[in-house]
Design goal:
DNA-binding; homodimer; Arc Repressor Mutant, subunit A; Tetracycline Repressor, domain 2
DNA sequence: CCGAGAACTGCACCGGCGGTACGGTTTTCT
DNA sequence: AGAAAACCGTACCGCCGGTGCAGTTCTCGG
């Protein structure tokens, strides 16, 4: 019973490393069980198929990442009472966290699986989209608080802004991977941050009219 | 000879539909040849392995999309001489084009393959990243022209802005797919547009100080 | 209209993969 | 001590990407 959970976790650890390094499809069960030192029967005792493995990975990932986000934005809330500052600080800390990862961030399970959705059944797909919706909802809540406190420079729907942050993260991950340059993700997280900042910060305080520059 | 090219194109057509619908890994050669009405030997006569099929798909995709982008931004250049306006108009037209596609945009081969890179060899991966770099370069050129003509509201590197546009497109595609909502892509393309607009447009002309709103 | 090369067909085969089936064994907790 | 959990061993299945090679049909330039 306790040993069962330990084995399950070990399978998930090995699988997660493989999926992040090579993708879900390229991480074979044979390879997982070889590294875990178990047999195929043992694997299928814990996960009745590969979809269940995917769900297990996603569930664990959601929990861990949720905890990280809680810590980061909790810290941001300690540093400022202002909702706009909280989001800006949180995004900066988040970007720094990603930049600080040795050898670059590991890549995101959700992003990885979004693009291999054809490998999975409905349950897994539903799980992926619900996680994406969670992210959008998280940022949306923050942005709605900001909207209540700040004038918007442009008439933009809070949901769109939230999705833009999530998109910047997903797009940053995918581009980091495509270009082999881990710095793109934190860079684009900061771009999203800057976007929010510009949308809400009283622009007149910072903008310099063209004529003034020419002079 | 001519017939050979026709078959090759038919294979690519069928494969492309499959890849966009189900992903590259899930599109089997058996299934392609069944639909094309040829044998396995026939397939491998045209493509010596699946990587070459991927390269064929990417090459065709790059050509077609390049043509579309040329048309769209050519039209934008007709509509305005101003580099900023050209980019803004081009992005709007691009977003409208994506929104107008029946049943939503088909998804992007490059984005799809970026996340299945473990399935491919170095050549294909190099091709994917070179296409992404093309996109970044394209937007970067446009943005550098804008930078030469407009004051920047925030000190942001043109490369970062270019990558942000590409990220918005990739992220938009991936989120559209995850959520099953094709409207996210055009929406996020317009968000990227709005970002550029805010970065360059003389802010003081539009921004309303908070006190003025309260009054 | 003929010949050469392009464009295939047909068939047999390989190893890796996800997955099934099922009986037997060890480990763990109560 | 006994029941349930946690495996092991083995044999098997169909799909998949891919190979090899001999034979056939089509197409087009000369």
């Amino acid at each position: 019973m306790r040993k069962g959970n330990a084995t399950r976790e070990r399978i998930l650890d090995i699988a997660e490393a493989g999926v992040l390094a090579k993708g879900f499809g390229a991480t074979s069960i044979d390879e997982i069980i070889a590294e875990a030192g178990i047999t195929k029967s043992g694997f299928f005792y814990h996960f009745h198929d590969k979809n269940e493995l995917a769900r297990g990975l996603l569930a664990r990932h959601r929990g861990r990442l949720g905890q990280l986000v809680d810590e980061i934005f909790g810290r941001a809330a300690e540093l400022s009472d202002d909702p706009l500052q909280q989001l800006l600080i949180g995004l900066t800390l988040f970007a720094e966290h990603m930049a600080a990862m040795p050898g670059g961030h590991p890549g995101c399970l959700v992003a990885t699986m979004s693009y291999q959705d054809q490998l999975f059944n409905r349950e897994v797909r539903a799980m992926v989209s619900s996680i994406v919706e969670d992210w959008n909802g998280f940022f949306r809540t923050m942005i709605e608080k900001i909207v209540a406190a700040y004038p918007l420079r442009e008439p933009v729907d809070p949901g769109r802004i939230a999705r833009n942050i999530t998109c910047a993260i997903d797009g940053g991950i995918i581009m980091s991977k495509s270009l082999g340059d881990p710095s793109v993700l934190p860079e684009q997280m900061l771009m999203a941050r800057n976007y929010v900042k510009m949308l809400f910060q009283p622009a007149a305080l910072h903008a310099v009219p063209r004529e003034a520059l020419a002079a």
